[in-house]
C-alpha cells in the first residue's frame, strides 16, 4: 500500500525545499540561545538551559513540520501534481499512505535532531531523556499526519496550517480543560459539558502528557512516574496504568494517526478530480 518511489519523491522535495537545512540551523540557533540564557542564571545553569531548550525546540519542530506538510500538500493540489500522480497506476490510498509515511519519516528525523540538541545542552537523566525523546518523536509524527489531514480538507495552505496548530494548542491544553471540568458542576449544562470534555479527551491526542521537561531533570520516577496521570482523565490514567508511560505514548500515537488517516481517506476518496 506504500509506494517506495513516491516516498522517496516526497523526501527529495523536503531536501529540495531546504527544510532539513533550515530546521537544523534553527535547532542550532535555539540551542545556542538556551545556553546563553542558562549562563545568565545564578544557579542551576544546566537545568535552566535544558528545560528552556527542550520546550523551545519542541515547539519549533512542530511548527516546522506543520508548515512544510501543509504548504507542500496544498502546492501539490494547486499545480495539478496530485491529478498527474493519480493518473498513473497509483490508487488514492497508496497516494495518501505514502505521503503520510514520508511525513512521519521526516517528523521522526527532526525529533531525533531535536533530542540530540537537547542532550548536548546539559546532563539529562538517562531514563527521562529516552522517554522524552520517544514522546517527542511520537508527537511530531502525530502532528505531521494532522497537517496532512487538514491540508487535504482545507483549501488554503495557511488555513490548514492554522487549523493544525489550533489542534496542537488544544492537545496541549486538554489536561487543563479536564482539570476545570472535574470541578463540581453548578447545573445540568455544566455537567453535560464536563462529560463531553471527557469524551473529547479520549479522541484528541494527549500531547500534554508527552515531552515532560521534568523527566529530563528528575527522571521518570523522580517526577512522579504515572502518578501525574491520575488527574489527566480516566482514559489516559487507565492506559498508563495498564501499559506504562511508553505504552501510553504508543497507544496515543497509533490511535491518533489511525483516526486522522481514516478521516483523510474518507474525504480523499469522495473527492472528484
How many strands?
A: 0
Radius of gyration: 20 Å
Judged by helices, strands and strand pairing, the structural class is mainly alpha
Overall outline: globular
Instruction: Provide mean pLDDT, rounded.
Output: 81
Biggest sheet overview: none
Q: Would you list the SSEs in sequence order as H and E?
A: HHHHHHHHHH
Q: What is the number of independent domains?
A: 1
What percent of the residues sit in helical stretches (DSSP H or I)? over 70%
- Percent strand equals under 5%
Gap from first CA to last CA: 21 Å
Report low-confidence residues grouped into runs of 5 or more: none
Describe the structure.
This protein has 273 residues and is mainly α. The protein has one domain. It is 79% helix and 0% strand. The chain is built from ten helices and no strands. Helix 3 runs antiparallel to helix 5 (92-121), helix 3 crosses helix 7 (157-181) and helix 5 (92-121) packs across helix 10. The radius of gyration is 20 Å and the shape is globular. The protein starts with a helix and ends with a helix.
Task: List strands and helices in order, with pairings.
Blueprint: H1 4-16, H2 19-39, H3 45-78, H4 81-86, H5 92-121, H6 126-153, H7 157-181, H8 188-203, H9 213-218, H10 234-270
Helix pairs in contact: 1-5, 2-3, 2-5, 3-5, 3-6, 3-7, 5-6, 5-10, 6-7, 6-10, 7-8, 8-10
Amino acid at each position: 500500500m506504500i509506494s517506495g518511489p513516491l516516498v522517496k519523491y516526497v523526501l527529495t522535495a523536503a531536501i529540495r525545499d531546504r527544510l532539513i537545512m533550515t530546521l537544523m540551523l534553527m535547532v542550532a540557533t535555539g540551542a545556542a540561545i538556551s545556553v546563553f540564557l542558562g549562563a545568565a542564571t545564578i544557579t542551576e545553569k544546566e537545568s535552566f538551559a535544558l528545560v528552556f531548550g527542550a520546550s523551545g525546540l519542541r515547539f519549533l519542530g512542530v511548527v516546522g513540520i506543520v508548515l512544510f506538510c501543509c504548504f507542500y500538500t496544498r502546492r501539490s493540489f494547486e499545480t495539478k501534481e496530485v491529478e498527474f500522480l493519480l493518473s498513473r497506476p497509483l490508487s488514492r490510498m497508496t497516494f495518501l499512505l505514502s505521503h503520510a509515511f514520508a511525513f512521519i519519516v521526516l517528523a521522526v528525523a527532526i525529533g531525533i535532531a531535536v533530542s540530540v540538541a537537547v542532550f548536548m545542552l546539559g546532563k539529562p537523566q538517562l531514563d527521562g531523556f529516552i522517554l522524552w525523546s520517544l514522546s517527542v518523536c511520537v508527537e511530531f509524527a502525530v502532528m505531521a499526519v494532522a497537517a496532512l489531514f487538514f491540508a487535504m480538507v482545507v483549501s488554503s495552505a495557511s488555513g490548514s496550517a492554522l487549523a493544525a496548530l489550533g489542534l496542537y494548542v488544544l492537545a496541549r491544553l486538554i489536561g487543563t480543560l479536564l482539570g476545570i471540568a472535574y470541578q463540581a458542576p453548578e447545573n445540568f449544562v455544566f455537567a453535560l459539558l464536563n462529560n463531553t470534555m471527557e469524551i473529547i479527551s479520549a479522541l484528541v491526542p494527549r500531547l500534554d502528557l508527552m515531552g515532560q521537561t521534568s523527566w529530563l531533570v528528575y527522571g521518570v520516577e523522580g517526577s512522579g512516574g504515572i502518578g501525574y496521570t491520575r488527574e489527566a482523565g480516566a482514559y489516559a490514567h487507565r492506559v498508563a496504568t495498564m501499559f506504562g508511560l511508553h505504552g501510553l505514548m504508543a497507544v496515543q500515537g497509533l490511535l491518533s494517526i489511525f483516526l486522522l488517516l481514516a478521516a483523510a481517506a474518507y474525504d480523499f476518496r469522495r473527492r472528484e478530480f
